[in-house]
């Protein structure tokens, strides 16, 4: 396999992974948040190396403030009007 072809495969794989990550974040934000939290918790353990702990703090999802009125996806966008 030539170097050019290998480089092309690597670029295609990276593009597919980034695309999949974007779709996951848009379609399943709660699942992505839980996965990021689980990975971060595994990395920030005191037994881990310092650079792993720093990586865990970096990928940890941001803290949510109080859960919001609906307890939903934290997008806090406009809600649909209530039907009476």
Task: Give the overall shape.
Answer: flat
Q: Give the averaged pLDDT, no decimals.
A: 84
Q: Largest beta sheet, briefly?
A: none
User: Alpha-carbon distance between the termini?
Assistant: 67 Å
Q: In what range is the share of β-strand residues? A: under 5%
What is the string of SSEs from the N terminus onward?
A: HHH
Computed CA radius of gyration, to the nearest angstrom? 19 Å
The unreliable regions are none
Which structural class is indicated by helix and strand composition?
mainly alpha
User: What's the count of strands?
Assistant: 0
Number of contiguous helices: 3
Helix content: 55-70%
Question: Which SSEs are present, and which pair or pack?
Answer:
Blueprint: H1 3-27, H2 29-43, H3 50-59
Helix pairs in contact: 1-2, 2-3
Explain the overall architecture.
The structure is a single chain. The chain has 84 residues and is mainly α. The chain contains 3 helices and no strands. Helix 2 runs antiparallel to helix 3. The radius of gyration is 19 Å and the shape is flat. It starts with a helix and ends in a 25-residue tail after the last helix.
């Amino acid at each position: 396999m030539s170097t050019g072809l290998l480089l092309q495969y690597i670029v295609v794989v990276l593009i597919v992974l980034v695309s999949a990550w974007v779709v996951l974040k848009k379609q399943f934000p709660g699942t992505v948040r839980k996965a990021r939290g689980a990975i971060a918790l595994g990395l920030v353990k005191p037994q881990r190396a310092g650079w792993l702990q720093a990586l865990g703090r970096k990928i940890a999802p941001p803290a949510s403030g109080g859960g919001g009125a609906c307890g939903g996806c934290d997008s806090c966008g406009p809600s649909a009007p209530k039907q009476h």
